[in-house]
Automatic annotation (TrEMBL):
Record's signal peptide: none
Entry keywords, A to Z: Membrane, Transmembrane, Transmembrane helix
Lineage, broadest ranks: Eukaryota, Fungi, Dikarya, Basidiomycota, Agaricomycotina
Name of the protein in question: Cytochrome b5
Domain of life of the native organism: Eukaryota
Coiled coil: none
Alphabetical list of InterPro entries matching this protein: Cyt_B5-like_heme/steroid-bd, Cyt_B5-like_heme/steroid_sf, MAPR/NEUFC/NENF-like
Sequence intervals crossing the membrane: 54-77
GO CC aspect terms: endomembrane system; membrane
Composition bias, Basic and acidic residues: 217-231
Length: 231
């Protein structure tokens, strides 16, 4: 007998038993006799539970297939949604500037942290880029928010945003969103900066090569930024 044939036989037995229970219930109810547990119908499987079982089966099948084909139950995906930290984030840490400086990649035993407008992100996934000698090593262990906007990596290695225009500030917001939503990097806390002392000069402007501009040119650029804010 085929599997389908056995299923039909089982269904026929269930239907016959249900009909028999129905007759017993009607007879007892008409005579006023209390119903016994065996007179009640078996609870039917809900549609939601049936769909849940199908979903779990497909999920298990997909994971097993991925393990055999790619060596990973997630089919090689290693983004942020595959990390436990995404769903159960650790408590955020508050850094001083001196504490943040320890995580510049010079110590291989420590992660690499990057500061950005007060936020601190773990960028250890790209140690080759952010570590010593890397193309973005200027950003490691410090809040260099200004450099993210101006591109002057060495000259503007500071959190001081004074004098920046709307477009430059918007660029910093863009980078904050990038690191916050990144598949590779994640936020670990924030850095607290001491107040900028009154009278501290605004960081000078820079040219395309990252060199400081002459004072008169820098002042003219500052005036242009001010006019942009007024508009």
């Amino acid at each position: 007998v085929s599997r389908y044939g056995r299923w039909k036989v089982e269904q026929a037995k269930k239907e016959a038993a249900a009909l028999e229970r129905k007759k017993r219930r009607e007879a007892k109810l008409s005579s006023g006799t209390p119903l016994a547990p065996e007179d009640l119908d078996e609870p039917e499987e809900s549609l939601l539970w049936a769909l849940t079982k199908i979903f779990l089966f497909l999920l298990l099948f997909t994971a097993i297939a991925g393990r055999f084909i790619t060596g990973s139950v997630l089919w090689g995906y290693e983004g942020k949604w595959a990390r436990w930290r995404t769903y159960w984030p650790a408590g955020e840490r508050v850094f001083s500037e001196a504490e943040l400086a320890r995580y510049d990649g010079s110590d291989p035993a420590l992660p690499i942290y990057l500061g950005l407008d007060g936020l601190v992100f773990d960028v250890s996934a790209s140690r080759r880029i952010y570590g010593p000698g890397g193309s973005y090593s200027h950003f490691a262990g410090v809040d260099a928010a200004r450099a993210f906007s101006t591109g002057c990596f060495a000259l503007h290695r500071t959190h001081d945003l004074r004098g920046l225009g709307p477009q430059e500030l918007a660029s910093i917001e863009h980078w904050k969103e990038f690191f916050t939503n990144s598949d590779k990097y994640f936020k670990v806390g924030r850095v607290v900066h001491p107040p900028i002392e009154e009278g501290t000069p605004v960081p000078p402007g820079c040219d395309a090569q990252g060199n400081a501009l002459p004072q008169d040119v820098a002042k003219e650029k500052e005036k242009e930024r001010s006019r942009g804010k007024e508009l």
